[in-house]
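User: structure tokens for this one?
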Amino acid sequence: MSKLGKRYRCVSCATVVLCLRPSAEEFSCCGETMREKDMEELPSGD
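Assistant:
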């Protein structure tokens, strides 16, 4: 299931997609299901 606003990454080629519509389907790339991308910590604004 793909979730609205989540980013998904291909472990083979590092392609990243942003989900614009929630769906029961899963994203796939290079013949594999894409994984939900982890949150990245942004640098401090100080």
